[in-house]
Every structure is written in structure tokens, then in C-alpha cells.
Amino acid sequence: MSRIDQLREELGGAHPVAATKVKDHLEPIVRGFIEAAPFLVMASSSGDGDCDASPKGGKPGFVKVLDERTLLVPDIGGNRLFQGYQNFETNPKVGLVFMIPGMNVTARVNGRVDVLDRDAVESLVGSPEVCFTDDNTRLIQAIRVSIDEAYLHCPRAFQFAALWDADTIAANSTRSLKSLRT
């Protein structure tokens, strides 16, 4: 028996709701969450197992739901490292975690990608939808995600971290990166 199987047995298995929430398509509530989310983290891994997790953001709806099994995630100009996109060259798997500020739940999507060039993306959805622009704000490319798994994820991590706590947010708003040095 594997260590994970032992843990499952020891802890009594997955909660019945958790065991049935993972779907191979977007249920209406998950679709609505994604359409309202201004932020996500895109996780990828190369064929050699090198990992990357990259934040992506825009106005709510910047990720387009093409249908119940397909998403379009734009790549808007950033640091030009393209680590996730490099990973997709050898491993087309992606994990996405969508967040809405103030909400203690996330939507998770796992799937397979194909990369679309700027012209293909513009013909599908137009230009980037962002809250902030600078000289680097332009559509570069996008991933089209064929969904393998989609579901809402429970609020426990947000509760453990008090991530959206108003007092914590207010205190952090006066801090600088320099203050984080040890």
C-alpha cells in the first residue's frame, strides 16, 4: 500500500462531497466563477519535471469560456521569460487556480493546452482586457485549455491564512518589499 493510500485509509477517505465534485466539464457555478475571476495561477511542468507557477490577471472575464469543456487564457506582455509556454513545448498539461478577491473559495481546472498565436487569439476574442496598462501591455499569445477536471475548491487555505482579512490587508498596504528582507 502506498503512503497516500495509507493516509486516505487512516483519515477515513475523501469527504463524500469532495469525492463527487470533480467534473470533466464546467458546471454553471464553476463557469460563473471563472467569468468573474480577475486572477489565476497557471501551473505547468516540462517533460523533465521542471515546474512553473505563473500569475495571470485581467478584468473579470479576461479568461474566455469558449464552451463547457474549453477555456482561452490570454498571455499579456510581462517579464518575457515564457517559462510556462516553454514547458508546454514538452508537456501540454496545465493546472489553473482561479481567485476572486474577498471570496474564500477557488475554482480549479486541470487540462491540456494548445498554444495559439496572437492573430488566432485576436480573431477569437479581440484585445487584452486589463485594469492597468503600460508600454508592455499587449496580447502575445494564448493557451486553449481542453478541460480534464474542473471544480470549486474549499475555503480552508484562505481561512488558515486569513488572506482576505481587512486588518491584514490594511497593515500590508503600508509595507514595502524592502521591509520583507531578513
Molecular structure report:
This protein has 182 residues and is an alpha+beta fold. It has a single domain (20-169), classed as Pnp Oxidase, Chain A (Roll). The protein contains seven helices and seven strands. It has a seven-stranded antiparallel β-sheet.
Task: Annotate the secondary structure layout.
Layout: H1 3-11, H2 16-21, H3 28-36, E1 39-45, E2 51-57, E3 64-67, E4 70-76, H4 83-88, E5 93-99, E6 106-117, H5 118-125, E7 139-153, H6 156-161, H7 166-173
Strand content: 25-35%
Distance between the termini: 43 Å
Q: Cα-atom Rg, whole angstroms?
A: 18 Å
CATH architecture: Roll
Q: What is the total number of structural domains?
A: 1
Strand count, sense and barrel status of the largest sheet are: 7 strands, antiparallel
Supply the helix-strand structural class. alpha+beta
Please state the overall shape, judged from the principal axes of the Cα atoms. globular
Under CATH at level 1, the class stands as: Mainly Beta
Q: Which regions are unreliable across 5 or more consecutive residues at pLDDT < 50?
A: none
Average pLDDT works out at 91
State the CATH topology.
Pnp Oxidase, Chain A
* Main sheet strand line-up: 2-1-5-6-7-4-3
Helix content: 25-40%
- Number-wise, the strands total 7
What is the N-to-C order of secondary-structure elements (H for helix, E for strand)?
HHHEEEEHEEHEHH
